[in-house]
């Protein structure tokens, strides 16, 4: 189990994560007279492997300031118990206000360190779970729950799921700790992100389950090898399908099983960007190979072969043609053929470069808008990279 280090005041301690039961000792043990303990370093021996916390208290600072704060007293007392150096009979609980103050300091330490805490679910209300943090009770909003719960029991309401979690231990992170306003907020999602985000990379493909569907896209829960859904990513509306998507809800519904590709990981903001369409064949390939076959064969109702004088250019192409002819190395631009796709990919004009290099000083571009596809022939002395740069310059000049 990984060991992490944190510092709280003059107290340094090691915390074994995901093991809340022993750590809860510090919520009820406070030594009222620790001056003798501070002056006896031999009492602070190395803990056994089962100890959750090991604190080293600076003897010099303690002797200089015998009124050390209660959080240090609590942690030192825990060490003494774990080392069997001080009998539990000698320890007296601190007054409730001092105890709560020490636990708020501990909460802030968890907030700043990013440590994971194992909190027991004490109950729930209409908005989330009530989670025990030492002598305090914090709040875990339902949106901050790991998706594994709802995916495991999809037929249950969130309140039924919450009822089943009462009494269980959840790994959470403190995301807000404000003693003045008594706001102690937890997130299970953040704790799960810390554990599982290291197991994914851009380009990975996951089986997923659609969660909520919004106007701007759909949130998809990723299934890991253990069979549980630990992380959630966004499939933006532009990454749902190669088709023109007016409403994501027309394509995706909550609970749908989908395959997604990880296209971006923002580890700083704990965000995943996913794509469904990138696992499907780009309809551009259908256009090149089927709608406008390179061998010239096609159904009469899907392809028109003619010279540029009889095919009306798509809106915006005339301006692009004029600018292309201003580029060195491009001698002629004309539309050779046009076809019609079965699907609407975008209403906006799009230009696509052919994968084939120029042949006999001729190069092919493809213009698309709506269902229309027009094949453009360039008479050029440029190579493929030169054409690409020329096209980039042209598109920067054309509004």
TrEMBL record:
User: Mind telling me which GO cellular component terms the entry cites?
Assistant: chloroplast
Residue spans crossing the bilayer: none
All copies of the S1 motif domain together span 114-189, 203-277
- Its Gene Ontology biological processes? maturation of 5S rRNA; response to abscisic acid
Gene3D superfamilies the record matches:
Nucleic acid-binding proteins (2.40.50.140)
| Any GO molecular function | RNA folding chaperone
Q: Tell me, what's a Pfam family for it?
A: S1
Protein name as catalogued? S1 motif domain-containing protein
Question: Species name for this entry?
Answer: Gossypium raimondii
Species lineage, top-down?
Eukaryota, Viridiplantae, Streptophyta, Embryophyta, Tracheophyta
């Amino acid at each position: 189990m990984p060991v992490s280090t944190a510092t709280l005041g003059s107290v340094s301690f090691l915390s074994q994560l995901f093991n809340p039961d022993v750590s809860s000792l510090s919520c009820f043990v406070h030594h009222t007279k620790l001056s003798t303990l501070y002056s006896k370093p031999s009492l602070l021996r190395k803990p056994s492997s089962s100890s959750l916390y090991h604190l080293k208290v600076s003897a010099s600072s303690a002797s200089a300031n015998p009124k050390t704060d209660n959080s240090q007293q609590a942690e030192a007392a825990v060490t003494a118990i774990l080392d069997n150096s001080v009998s539990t009979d000698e320890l007296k609980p601190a007054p409730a206000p001092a105890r709560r103050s020490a636990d708020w300091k501990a909460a802030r330490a968890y907030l700043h360190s990013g440590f994971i805490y194992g909190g027991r679910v004490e109950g729930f209300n209409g908005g989330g779970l009530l989670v025990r943090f030492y002598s305090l009770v914090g709040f875990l909003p339902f949106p901050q729950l790991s998706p594994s719960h709802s995916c495991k029991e999809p037929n249950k309401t969130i309140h039924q799921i919450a009822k089943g979690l009462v009494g269980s231990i959840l790994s959470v992170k403190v995301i807000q700790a404000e003693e003045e306003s008594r706001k102690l907020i937890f997130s299970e999602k953040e704790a799960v992100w810390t554990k599982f985000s290291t197991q994914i990379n851009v380009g990975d493909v996951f089986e997923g389950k659609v969660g909520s569907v919004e106007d701007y896209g759909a949130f998809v829960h990723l299934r890991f090898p253990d069979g549980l859904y630990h992380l959630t990513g966004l499939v933006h509306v532009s990454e749902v399908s190669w088709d023109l998507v007016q409403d994501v809800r027309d394509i995706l519904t909550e609970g749908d099983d989908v395959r997604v590709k990880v296209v971006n990981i923002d580890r700083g903001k704990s965000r995943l960007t996913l794509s469904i369409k990138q696992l499907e064949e780009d309809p551009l390939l259908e256009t090149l190979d089927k709608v406008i076959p390179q061998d010239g064969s096609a159904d009469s109702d899907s392809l028109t072969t003619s010279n540029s004088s009889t095919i009306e250019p798509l809106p915006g192409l005339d301006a692009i043609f004029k600018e292309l002819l201003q580029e060195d190395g491009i001698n002629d631009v004309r539309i050779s053929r046009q076809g019609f796709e079965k699907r609407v990919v975008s209403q906006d004009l799009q230009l696509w470069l052919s994968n084939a290099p120029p042949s006999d000083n001729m190069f092919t571009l493809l213009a698309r808008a709506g269902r229309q596809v027009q094949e453009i022939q360039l008479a050029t002395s440029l190579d493929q990279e030169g054409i690409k740069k020329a096209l980039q310059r042209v598109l920067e000049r054309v509004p």
